[in-house]
Amino acid sequence: MVVVTQHGARTNATISRNSLAAPLCEASIYSKKDILNKEDQMDFIECPMTFPQDVPTHVMTYFRQVGRFTGVAPTPSKMSPKQILAYPGDLEEIQCSVMAARPAVKITWTINGNDITTHAKAVERQNLDGTYMTLSTLHHVFNQEDDGQTLECVVKHATFTETDINTSPVTVFFSSKPTPAKVSPKQITAYPGDLQKIECSVMAATPAVKITWILNGRNITSDAEAKDTHNNHDGSSMTISTLHRVVNLEDNGHKLECVIAHPTLDEPDVTFIPITVYFSPVQKQEHTFFQIELNSDYEVFLSFSAYPQPSALMWSFESNSQEMANHIQIPSNNGKFSTSLIIRDNDSYQALLRLSEITNEDIETNFTLHVANEIGAADYSVMFSEAQNPIACK
User: Fold this and answer.
1) Is 153 helix (H, G, I), strand (E, B) or coil?
2) How far apart, in whole angstroms, are the C-alpha atoms of residue 257 and residue 268?
3) Model-level pTM?
4) In which domain, by residue range, is 62 found?
């Protein structure tokens, strides 16, 4: 037992060659952190020789002679994964850990003789028994030249006469760019409600490609069957994705996209499939325009959709006092009525009807737009009223 007085306080310090956790190393005379972090290839770790001014010289000399303490040998290192399978350009995460050691171990990484520890991050945590757990996580991009090499986790510790090396064999597969994607059919022509089967295939690629289906900016891959991948004789993979989809009116004019992703591609490869949906003019309910002022000019824009473009288009009007309907061609202008057709896109239109100096007779007249294409026909009725809009009045 050695008795040391520090600033008037008595400190008992027991020196032991069998325990690093002896009170001596925890006393303020020594820095425990310096002891535990000291890197030394010797069998023993020597306490730092820094003393307060009031420690007698003979005590410091005594400490220098016996102030050595044995460390705790590390538990066996563990490496995960135990085997690395990657394609060129793949970023992989590998971990190497030692659950207990005193002092903490030092972990380095090598592959093909090259130190790659700069790509790793180590975390140390003190256990309840005073030992240290060390976890090193490596992020490494594997290339073709890494194939057949061995990734090494090298553990160094003061109690080792030789370093502990844990290894993972590396297999980097040969990669080849995908062959051009093929789609069938190359163009979709259908009617609303038709169930279409569309295939997108890549005949060869290493590794297999990933196929995604996009329509109008929305991912619809969930509507496709699971991709079917076959191994070719040369080791490459053929991938086929089959999409089953019911065609809607809204699909007309859009393009279905087959998107191919692969590690060898800087950007996904996209194949477009145009969609054409044939449908007759879409029916609408009668529309009434309210708050019409007599003797004023008024314009009616009536929107409708159809594909292909209407082949027959005209306005008709009929009042209670008339026995036969009158017809107005589109386009036309007879002074009282002016008509025209505005094409918004390939299946959306606006029919314009302009009335000059609206009269009571006009208000009592029912105007009808007649639209027909090769698929079917529809009539759109328009009425005028001086009354307030009932919706606006609520």
Assistant:
1) strand
2) 11
3) 0.58
4) 2-70
